[in-house]
Write a structure and sequence with these properties.
CATH class: Alpha Beta
Number of strands: 12
Distance between the termini: 29 Å
Helix content: 25-40%
CATH architecture: 4-Layer Sandwich
CATH topology: Nitrilase/N-carbamoyl-D-aminoacid amidohydrolase
Number of domains: 1
Strand content: 25-35%
Radius of gyration: 17 Å
Order of helices and strands: EHEHEEEHEEHEHEEEEH
């Protein structure tokens, strides 16, 4: 029987994506090593390659190699990120969660952002596959960027104690990201871990948000750190019953 840890040290990353893929991977590997005491790490959406539509085949090949490298070094930690991969003849934006040297969960982005031409270049995943999953007795869920806007998906992930939210969210809609992610934490009485790109046209706003809507956020930092206290989730769900 797995004994659930009550407190988890977590870090959400707020990093720019460089044109050279290997530079991004090297930066991530360095951070993982430096943050070896953290239980959960979340990287921004497609951090390793960006939406490099002109070189999707190359991005997908690199992503496969990067996942193999990351699996070798991720042991007790939980790492969440999204990558461009090839699925048959199609390309997808796939979230992968790595733990104990394995991909323990994967989920293709189901809601593609048309303003960013994602629907032209990528194939959407199945919405029904977005649901909570367990790691060491803790219930997680994952939404990818634009999916945060769909209240029906909030319903699908009810019960999750920790929601992982890798995004590549633009600066003009910065307030939307902050309001929606905080609302999700309050509505679903869970922690929400937001990791956004810090590219010049991005919103930053990476954050660790509690069920009480306590927010740890700093647009000037590349790493946002805090504790996830699962007792707060339990407390809120007992205090405000949502039946």
């Amino acid at each position: 029987m797995i004994k659930k840890v009550k407190k988890l040290e977590v870090v959400v990353l707020q990093l720019p994506t460089k044109k050279r893929y290997q530079e991004n991977l090297d930066r991530l590997l360095k951070i993982i090593k430096e943050e070896s005491d953290k239980k959960i790490l979340v990287a921004p959406e497609v951090y390793l390659t960006g939406y490099d539509y002109d070189h999707l085949e190359t991005a997908a090949i690199f992503s496969v190699k990067a996942i193999k490298t990351l699996k070798k070094i991720i042991d007790d930690q939980v790492l969440a990120l999204t990558v461009i991969l090839k699925d048959g003849d199609d390309f997808v934006n796939q979230a992968v969660v790595i733990h104990k040297h394995k991909v323990v969960y994967k989920q293709n982005k189901a809601k593609l952002f048309k303003m960013g031409d994602e629907d032209i270049y990528l194939t959407p995943g199945k919405k029904k596959k977005i649901k909570p999953f367990m790691i060491e007795g803790i219930s997680y869920a994952l939404l990818i960027c634009f999916e945060l806007r769909f209240k029906g998906l909030w319903k699908q992930i009810e019960g999750a104690e920790v929601v992982l939210l890798p995004v590549r969210w633009g600066a003009p809609r910065k307030k939307h990201l902050e309001v929606l992610s905080q609302a999700l934490a309050v509505m679903n009485q869970c922690y929400v871990l937001v990791s956004n790109s810090s590219d010049l046209d991005m919103a930053n706003s990476s954050a660790i948000i509690s069920p009480d809507a306590d927010v740890v956020m700093n647009d000037e930092r590349e790493r946002i750190e805090a504790d996830v206290d699962l007792r707060q989730v339990k407390k809120m769900r007992r205090y405000i019953v949502m039946d």
